[in-house]
Protein 1
Amino acid sequence: MEYFKDKKRALRNRTITLGDSEISRLRKKLIKISQPVSISQIENKTIHQNMFEVIDNLPDKFIDLAFVDPPYNLNKNFNLTSFRAMDSEKYAEWLDSWVKKLIHILKPHASIYICGDWKSSGAIFSVAKKYFEIQNRITFEREKGRGAKANWKNCSEDVWFCTLSGNYYFDIEAVKMKRKVIAPYKDETGRPKGWEKTENGKYRITHPSNFWTDLTIPFWSMPENTDHPTQKPEKLVAKIILASSKPGDVVFDPFLGSGTTSVVAKKLGRKYIGIEIDEFYCCLAEKRLEMAEKEKTIQGYSDAVFWERNTLNERVSGNGRKKQIETLDNLFTNKPL
C-alpha cells in the first residue's frame, strides 16, 4: 500500500491518488467470495481477489460482455504483484487456464474482447479459437512511449473481438466517428457530398474500422490517469461497451486494474463486475466509480460520436492558438468549457 506514496508529481499533475483515510474507507466497499453467489450479491461490485479463487463461484450465463486485459507476456510490476515473461507455449497454457473458465459465466450471445501486444497476440489467437468464434482483431495506436534504438518502436496493441456464437449483439451506429474532411467533394448542385460544414470546420460522420488511431493513452494531465502501469483509455473501453452491449447489460472484467471497465460501464448505463488482485488498485477503482457519479464525460466522446484525437478541442476553441491551449487544458482537467 505504500508503493506510490512518495512519488513526486508536477504542480499540474491530475493523476488520481489515494490517501490513507480514503483507502480505509474504500476498502470497506470491496467484497470477497468463498462460495457460490447470486448475481445480486456481486452486481456493481469490485471483487478483491485472485480471479482463479472467484470464477468457479460466479453464476452461470449472466455476462453480456467481457473485457479482458490480462498481463502481457512481459516482465511487469503491478504495485505489490508482478508478472514475469515466459516462453510462448507456457504463456498460451496460462491463458488457457483461465479463458476456459469464463465460458460458464457468459450468456449464449455474449462477446469477449481480449487485449494483447505483438508478443502475446499469437498465443491469444491460438487459445481464443478453441473456445470462441473470432470476429476480428482491433489494432490501436499507442503513441505513448520511448523510441527504440535497435528495433522499431512498439506503438500498437491488439484487441481480439470474439463471440460465443454467430448470434451476437453489435451496434455500429453507436460507435461512429467524426473526422475532418480532407477532400470536401460536392454533388452537381454544389452541396456537400457525405459531409457537413460547420463554423469550426468540415466534418464527416463515418463507420469505424478495426484500426484505431484516435486514442490517447492516459498521462499525467488527464483526469482519468492513475498510477497503474498499463491503464487503458476510457475512450477505448467506451467504444467496445457501446458496440457490444445494451443499456442495462452486465459488463465483466476479470483483470480490473484501476477500474476503467467498471467506470466506463457505469458512465454508459451498464451494470459492472470487476475482479482485481491488488487492494490499492481496487480502492482506486472505487474512488473513480464515486467520481463517475458526478462526472460522466469520456474524453474524445461527445454528441454521440467519437472524435479524432486532438480535434474535439479544436471544435470548441476557435482559431486562436492561446484559446486552443486553454481549451485543451480544460478538457483534461474537467473545467467547464
Note: The domain at 20-171+209-296 is CATH 3.40.50.150 (Rossmann fold).
Protein 2
Amino acid sequence: MATTKGPKKAKEPKNGEGDDASAPLGGKDYERELEKLHGELVKLQLWVVAKGLKVVVVFEGRDGAGKGGVIKAITERVSPRVYRVVALPAPTEREKSQMYIQRYIRHMPAAGEIAIFDRSWYNRAGVERVLEFCTNEQAERFLEVTPEFEKAMVESGVQLIKYWLEVSEEEQTRRLEARIDDPRKIWKLSPMDLKSYNRWYDYSRARDDMFKATDTPWAPWHVVRSDDKRRARLNVISHLLARIPYKELPREKPDLPKRQKPHGYVEPDYPYKFVPELNW
C-alpha cells in the first residue's frame, strides 16, 4: 500500500557523501517540512490503531548523536498512547538477576502500538561491553542470540525498525562541550558520557561487531548521518513513514455542537488560587 503524498523520497548518497545535504538546513525550511511529516505521522497513527499493527523502533548511536531529538520530533504531535517511548534506567539488582532480555520484553507493543526504544537491548553490545558492565563472553553471547530473538519477534507479527545515528568526532565534541555550561543541557552530561567520549575507538569496534552480527535481512540496521540535526530528524521520519505502508483513513470533519444554556447557573464567588501572571 502506498502512502498518501507528504514525505519526500529520500535521495541516495553519492560515493559516501551527502550531496546537497551537506549545507545546513534553515529553521524555516525545517519547520515547514516537519509540519508536513507530523501530519503523516498522525495518519500513520490512525492506521496502526485501525489495523492493529505492532511496531518496534530502536534508536542507537554514540552519546551526542541526537537520538533524543529525533524521538522528540517523531512524538511531539502524536498520541503517547500509540507512540510509546521506552527509555529504561540502569537495571535494578533484581533485573540484573533476570534473563538479560527480560526487562525489554515487557515493553513490547500490543496491537495498535508503536514502541520507540531510546536505547534498547543493544546496550549490551555497546555501553555495557565498552565500559565493562558485562563480560566479553556475555557480549559475544548476546551477539549470537540476538538475530534469532529478533527473527522470532518479526515472525510473531512485530515490525522491527532499527536506526543507528552516526555522528562525527568533531560534532560529538562540540555537542558535549555545549552541555557543560548550558543549564538546559547539564542533565544530558553524565560521568558515563565522559567515559564514552574517551573511548571513541572502543565504541567503533563494538559498533562494527554489532553490525556484523545483527544486520540481518529480517532486521537490518539503517544508518543516519546526524551531524546536521534537522536533516537527520526529517530523514528518519521520512524513512520511518516509508517503512510502514499506510493509507489515510476516511473521516468526516466534525462540527462543534452548540453549548448548553446556563439554566440558572452562576459562577461562585470562590477564592481560587490563581497562578500569578508575571510581566514577561
Note: Residues 19-243 form a domain with the Rossmann fold fold (CATH 3.40.50.300).
Protein 3
Amino acid sequence: MRHSGLQNYIIRRLIYAVLIAWGVVTCTFILLRVGPSSPADKYLANMSARAQNPSQVVAAIEARYGLDRPMYQQYTDWVVNLVHGDWGWSFSTSLPVMRLIARHWIYSFQLILLSMLFSASLGILIGVYSAIRQYTRTDYLATFFSFIGISVPNFWLGVMLILVFSVHLGWFKTYYDTGLPILSLANLKALILPVIALGTGMMAGYTRYARSAVLENLRKDFVRTARSKGLSERVVISRHVFRNAMLPIITIILFDLSGVVFGGAYLTEIIFGIPGLGRISFNAVFANDYAVVVAVTLIGSMVVLLTNLVTDIIYTWLDPRIRYD
C-alpha cells in the first residue's frame, strides 16, 4: 500500500509539474511578445544588412520566421514545434536553440554541482561540529563566520576574489577559459573562485541550519534512550541525531538548488565570464531573443518542480513514517 501510494503521488506530481511549467512558459511567451522591439533588430545587426532599408529587412525576417503572425498563431506553432523537439531559432547567435543549450549547459552544471558539494559538505560538517561543541570557541567562531557569509552578496564576493587573487596575486585568470577540457585539473582550478563566490553564502546558511537541527535533536528523548543503552557518542550522533536532523537540512539544500539555478549562478557566470545558461539567457533578454529566454525558463521551471518532487521522495527514505497514500 505504501509503495502504491507513493507511486500514485509521483504520477500526480509529474502531471502537476507539466501543467505548471506550461503555465510559466506561456506567461513568459506572452510577456516577451508584447515588448516594443523585435528580435529581428538584433538579427539584422548580425547580418550587417544596414546598407538596405532596415524596416524592409526586419519585415522580411519577421515574415520568414512567423513573427508577423498573430500571437495565438505564434504560440500554437511554438507548442507544436516544442512537442516535436524543435525549440526554435536563436536570433542573437544564429543557431538553433537546442544546439545552443547543448553547447552551454555543461558550464552551468559543473558550476552548480561543485558549488552545492562545496557548500553542503562543509556547511553540514561545521554545523554538526559546532552543535556538539556548543558554547566553545569553535562554536562562536563558526557562528561569527556564518553570519558574515550570509550577509555578503555573492556578486560582491566574486568581484573581490577576482581583485585579490587574480589581479593582485595573479594566482588565477580574471576570466574563465573555455578552451580547457571539462574533466581536467586546470578546469577545476579555474572554477575555484566561482565556486567559492557562489557557495559561501549557502555554506554559511547550512552551518546555521545544521547546528540548529542537531541541537534540537540532542535534547529529545530518543537520544537519552540511546545513550542509556550504552551506545557511544559517535553512534548516537551519526545514526540517530544526524539522520533526524537531515530532514530540514535537505529541504533547505534542494530549495537552494532551485534558487541557484535561477539567481546566484546567473550572476556568478556573468562576473567570471562563464558561458553557461545564465549568461546566454542574460544576453538573450537584452537581445529580445524570444526562443532562448523561453527555453531557459522552461528548463529552470522543470528543475525547480522536479527538485521539489525528489525532496518528497527522499523524505520517505529518511523517515518511514511519512506516507503519501
Note: The longest helix spans residues 233-272.
